[in-house]
Specification:
Elements (H helix, E strand, L loop, with lengths): L2 H14 L11 H7 L5 H22 L1 H8 L3 H25 L6 H19 L5 H29 L5 H29 L4 H18 L13 H7 L20 H8 L3 H32 L3 H32 L1 H24 L3 H16 L1 H11 L6 H80 L7 E10 L2 E11 L4 E6 L5 H9 L6 E6 L2 E2 L5 H7 L1 E4 L11 H11 L4 H14 L1 H5 L10 H15 L3 E5 L7 H16 L3 E6 L2 H4 L5 E6 L2 E7 H5 L21
Parallel strand pairs: 3-8, 3-9, 6-7, 7-8
Antiparallel strand pairs: 1-2, 1-4, 4-5, 9-10
């Protein structure tokens, strides 16, 4: 695919996901009708989000009655409720791992809600603290399910043209639940005079009815509305959700996915913003209650009216924001994030002013405005979070966002603001909120700078996969190794810059360059020891960019590192057995490989009982190369084979490499010695300062004196080049 075609394909992909098109869209109802999307999923998930708040809210409101009935104090009850919070934190990531394969999200949302509903009903008949603890833990698991699967389900159910509006509508359900739930508890406990046990039974029955309504909920599969649509727009009309296709990428494990997400700049910034938001917002509601009681002498009913007013204003803000935010995202995703940063900074100023102004009416208006602006953060940040990652990673991103907000931010905020309040009072709280607000604003603005590039990177991966798919469909075989556009950094120091590197089946290539050119770093990226910040690594068309190193060994990628590629304290025989075990080979295959290694290197057989650290440099390199005989790799990466060795030993090792290559293994030979490398290869690459400067026949490289400087050419002119 040419550069122009790639650019066109990327533009098509952006348009398909609703980016770069500022034209007006119809109403949400009209858009759903146009895309044959039902209100059912949004409504059911919204209802489940509301009923998920029932138990926690009832527990907080009815804590005095529960304590008296069970004979426990507020400290014990606070500890019990803290366990629920711990369950939410601990269960989000395992739930993400559970749903990363197959269509399990809808079923999980129903089962978790159904389970805690039934347990809540039984709370009315089994009034004991251990049972209450079990019910709260089940409620925590249900909340973790809501956090992890609801937003990804919505994004996979509804078209991208409605993304911000759907998430805003879902957030409206959550805010509405915060209004409805306390009122419902109050009505049950006062108007109908139910005990705390009766209230729990009534809430459990209401939740159970919601679960019954949700039984028709289905998981459409990952990416059916965006990724599959992009593939169809690129000429693959048979594209199906990720869970139903084998795809062209290696299945990533949970930790591989989490590690991949944390490499995306926008994701890191959004997670950081979430943590800082939790630090300020979670403890803020508690301190606001005491502020209203102590500063303005508001009673329980008056405080309830105050918070109800704030939530009602937030609902109105979300309704207005959905369409506006959708238009900003279509025009430019960065504009949506920047608008979010402005909204947050204004909300922070409103909160700070609300703690300081002397007129209560103004206080109410300021906190209502802040609540409305804060409410829009959820849909906007969720859109930024989920638009820059593959659909199958969205549950993991949602789980990480939940953990960063509640566990990192909330816990840290309680500790920080608690200490500040005791020492400095309200003024100290205002200062902390102002400073954290400034930091959050800066972090969100940073996400605005990266979201477009990260979105394009994700879409470019789909474009590349479709190109590979077309290549396979045409009967052509993709290269054994294909690296495209690799960027890599050590901390803040970038080492690789857009590196392209290809190796065909059975080929032996030389990778040359001066010290610090990035040769060893490139091998680390190919073998999985380093993860790129951009670009891809494919093995015969299969994306393995973020696969763990040990899995790459099983896929057939083996690296012999420069210097001493052995475990010194182990004997020669133990090193060889360890190589076989690393690839999961059975004992018979490992033994056969060891025999082949000893046959090839008789010196190793003579020293099989010696610690590897007692071997000479050449013998240690022989031992390192022997792993290739045991593992039978498809691709062997050799870093500085001749480093510090005598010419005779180097000759023996080169002969061994040629033998391995002749058996069908592709070899990448990294060398600083041009005369050694170019004597055994036909194809060469040359790197300088992290960029690929030459890719072509080895003979032509000798003519590039601008690349091969005099110190590098020493002896090269006398070297014979393989014909």
């Amino acid at each position: 695919m040419t550069a122009v075609t790639q650019a066109d394909a990327l533009a098509t992909a952006r348009a398909t996901v609703g980016v770069g098109d500022g034209s007006a869209r119809g109403s949400l109802r009209g858009e759903l009708r146009r895309h044959a999307a039902s209100w059912y999923t949004l409504t059911v998930l919204g209802v489940l989000a509301v009923v998920d708040q029932f138990q926690g809210t009832a527990f907080v409101i009815l804590s005095p009655e529960i304590g008296r009935a069970l004979g426990v104090g507020k400290t014990e009850l606070a500890g019990v409720f803290a366990i629920k919070t711990l369950a939410v934190t601990l269960c989000t990531l395992p739930i993400a791992a559970l749903v990363q394969k197959g269509r399990r999200r809808a079923a999980l949302a129903i089962v978790t809600a159904f389970t805690w509903s039934v347990l809540t009903i039984f709370t009315g008949f089994v009034a004991a603290l251990p049972w209450l603890l079990l019910v709260l833990v089940a409620d925590g698991v249900s909340t973790a399910s809501v956090t992890t699967v609801h937003q990804p389900l919505l994004l996979d159910t509804y078209p991208p043209s409605t993304r911000v509006r759907v998430l805003s509508a879902y957030r409206t359900w959550e805010v509405g639940g915060a209004i409805l739930t306390p009122l419902l508890v109050a009505v049950l406990a006062t108007t109908y005079r139910l005990t705390w046990r009766g209230t729990f039974v009534a809430l459990g029955l209401a939740s159970l009815m919601a679960c019954l309504v949700s039984l028709r909920l289905r998981d459409p599969g990952f990416g059916v509305r965006d990724e599959a649509a992009v593939r169809a727009a690129l000429g693959n009309p048979d594209a199906v959700p990720e869970t139903e296709s084998e795809g062209l990428g290696a299945d990533l494990g949970f930790f591989e996915i989490a590690r991949r997400l944390l490499l995306i700049p926008t994701i890191r910034r959004v997670l950081g913003a979430n943590a800082l938001l939790g630090l300020a917002q979670i403890p803020l509601s508690t301190y606001l209650v005491f502020f209203l009681a102590d500063r303005w002498r508001l009673g329980v009913g008056e405080r309830a009216v105050f918070f109800g007013f704030v939530q009602v204003v937030s609902v109105g803000a979300l309704v207005a924001f959905g369409r506006y935010g959708e238009r900003l995202f279509r025009e430019d995703p960065a504009r949506l994030v920047l608008a979010n940063a402005v909204a947050f900074s204004v909300a922070t100023l409103c909160v700070c002013a609300g703690f300081l102004v002397p007129v209560f009416a103004v206080v109410a208006v300021l906190f209502a405005a802040a609540g409305a602006l804060f409410a829009t953060l959820g849909p906007a940040l969720a859109t930024a979070l989920h638009s820059t990652i593959p659909a199958r990673f969205r549950p993991h991103a949602a789980a990480l966002a939940g953990v960063s907000y509640a566990a990192i931010g909330g816990t840290g905020g309680l500790v920080l603001l608690g200490g500040v309040d005791r020492r400095y009072g309200t003024v100290g709280i205002v200062v902390v909120i102002a400073l954290s607000g400034a930091v959050v604003t800066a972090v969100i603005r940073g996400a605005a700078k990266t979201i477009n590039a990260d979105l394009d990177t994700m879409l470019a991966q789909i474009v590349e996969e479709e190109e590979s798919r077309r290549l396979v469909a045409s009967g052509r075989t993709p290269p054994l190794l294909a690296c495209r556009g690799l960027d890599f950094s050590y901390g803040q120091v970038q080492v690789l810059f857009g590196v392209d590197f290809t190796v065909d089946d059975g080929e032996m290539v030389a990778l040359l360059g001066t010290n610090g050119a990035g040769k060893s770093t490139l091998l680390r990226v190919v073998s999985g020891l380093g993860l790129p910040s951009a670009g891809s690594v494919r093995l015969r068309g299969v994306d393995m960019t973020y696969v763990d190193p040990e899995r790459r060994v099983r896929m057939g990628v083996v690296q012999v590192p420069g210097g001493r590629a052995v475990f010194g304290p182990l004997t020669v025989a133990e090193n060889l057995k360890l190589f076989g075990g690393a690839a999961g080979r059975n004992a018979r295959s490992v033994d056969a490989g060891i025999e082949a290694a000893f046959e090839t290197f008789p010196r190793l057989y003579e020293r099989r009982g010696q610690p590897a650290s007692t071997l000479s440099g050449g013998e240690q390199q022989m031992l390192g190369l022997s792993q290739a005989l045991i593992l039978s790799p498809r691709l062997l990466l050799i870093d500085e084979l001749s480093l510090g060795l005598a010419p005779k030993v180097v000759g023996e090792l080169i002969a061994m490499v040629q033998r391995i290559n002749a058996a069908g293994t592709a070899v990448v030979l990294v060398e600083q010695s041009v005369n050694i490398a170019l004597s055994v290869v036909e194809h060469a690459y040359f790197m300088e300062r992290g960029e690929m400067q030459f890719d072509g026949p080895a003979r032509k490289l000798l003519a590039r004196k601008d690349l091969l400087r005099s110190v590098f050419l020493e002896g090269a002119s006398k070297a014979g080049v393989k014909k």
